[in-house]
């Protein structure tokens, strides 16, 4: 069996709805996968076409922390008043609070090309998105760097002209 050219950037992420999100890289493009068990949706982004990778921090993680904290505190208060049935749900809320805090801030990552802006649902935590950008940045720069045989044209303002908006070609 032939070895695949695709390398998974990070372990696949599963959503509550049962969808699986993954991000793969290869020599010349990035591949985003969304699967629900029956269908798979692939999006291919060539490194030469990528204009920007935009990461925006969202308040979703903080909102979940507040929900877990308030709910856990209320359940533990019920336990302390004498009802033992509140101990396990309260402990689970505090465990969820701890896990969400350790995972770090949430974010939305979008990839922009000349034609589209697409959300990358596999990158939902800031730490993971920053690592992905650090891995992809050299690959994108390598493909998009100008050819050293043809340096870019640099224009300088002319100092001899009466018109300050006129440029002299270099």
Would you tell me the structural class of the helices and strands? Answer: alpha+beta
Shape, per Cα inertia axes: elongated
- Strand proportion, as a percent range, falls in 25-35%
Alpha plus pi helix count: 3
Parts with pLDDT < 50 across at least 5 consecutive residues: none
Give the total of beta strands: 10
What radius of gyration results from the CA coordinates? Answer: 25 Å
How far is the first residue's CA from the last residue's CA? 56 Å
- State the helical fraction: 25-40%
What's the order of the H and E elements?
EEEEEEHHEEHEE
Main β-sheet: number of strands, strand sense, barrel status? 5 strands, antiparallel
Mean pLDDT: 84
Describe the structure in your own words:
The structure is a single chain. The chain is elongated. The model has no long low-confidence stretch (mean pLDDT 84). The strands form three sheets. Strands 1, 2, 3, 4 and 5 form a five-stranded antiparallel β-sheet that branches. It has a three-stranded antiparallel β-sheet with strand order 6-7-8. The longest helix has 21 residues, at 60-80. It has three helices and ten strands, in the order ββββββααββαββ. The chain is an alpha+beta fold and 170 residues long.
